[in-house]
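hey can u check if this looks right to u? its 363 residues, i copy pasted from the old doc so theres a chance i mangled smth
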Amino acid sequence: MSVIAAIAVIALLVAVHEAGHFLAARWQGIRVNRFALGFGPVLWKYQGPETEYSLRAIPLGGFVGFPDDDPDSAIAPDDPNLLKNRPILDRAIVISAGVIANLIFAYLVFVVQFATVGIPETFNPQPGILVPQIITETSPAARAGIRAGDLLTAVNGKPLGTGSTVIPEFVQVIKDNPNRPVQITLQRGSRQLTLTVTPELGAEGKAVIGVQLQPNGNFGYRRPRHLLEIFALAAQEFQDMVMRTLRGFLMLATNFKEMASQVAGPVKIVEQGAGLAQSSLAMLFPFTAIISINLAIINILPLPALDGGQLAFLLVEALRGRPLPERLQENVMQTGLVLLLGLGVFLIVRDTSQLEIFQHLRP
């Protein structure tokens, strides 16, 4: 069920993205002839007055189709409501609407989380730091033997106390020791263990060990004091997550060789989401938000076959006063699509081979 929940989250975010394109086009009176969720064989379809709506077998994608791209369309090529015949600004709104929809949705996810689940809070703080979740089975923490549910009590021989500074202080020790061993003392049930973990550079270029951290105490959720607190905290969480994601992409661009192993494909994303859902369904809220933000940022990159690539073509058209030759645009987009599909297949194969079930099959 946790895997199904994670796949459902990804399918929902794809639907939000494509709905952004679709609604932006229909709002401006631009013709749309297809709205599909998923790729591959059609499972269900409905033909509306102008648009065919369909659900397809592979839920990790979707598309909005325009008559401009349909050689069998009966609509006249000079129809003013075809996307290609609209001014640059109208087309830019349609192309960027998917990204905007994902960003707005991410913010609303935090609003719904704080309004329904509540605002996370720790009561009766105790010494130490709890580990509610190991992020991946291949993380430095997992390799060192740290498990979900462990209580960290000391780092490099220094006891971990209580208060709001204990987690930042622990994180700082990890950041200060990239690729250097760190001794961690922990409590596991009635046993006390001392393990050695070697932090590695993470997606933001900072040393990490791959665990979630939580203050030790009675963790729960409190009701928001007022409506303004919900929107304010949601805005803060959204801003922090966007900035962390942008820093991660910047580190990937500037240190690709070191950071390439941190890039996750659909299989890894589903695995991480399933782990969070198994731990607590409430954890699906931040998971949904961060995937939605990542989807938005990836799509706005000026790469062929992505929304950012199409916006780049519009910018060139605005500067030249006329569009680039259609054949050139098609070749660039098709090349980009092949490269993206190749990368997707590589990530799926790599991440599938690293799943726990396959790790256990190795001699």
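DSSP finds eleven helices and twelve strands in the chain.
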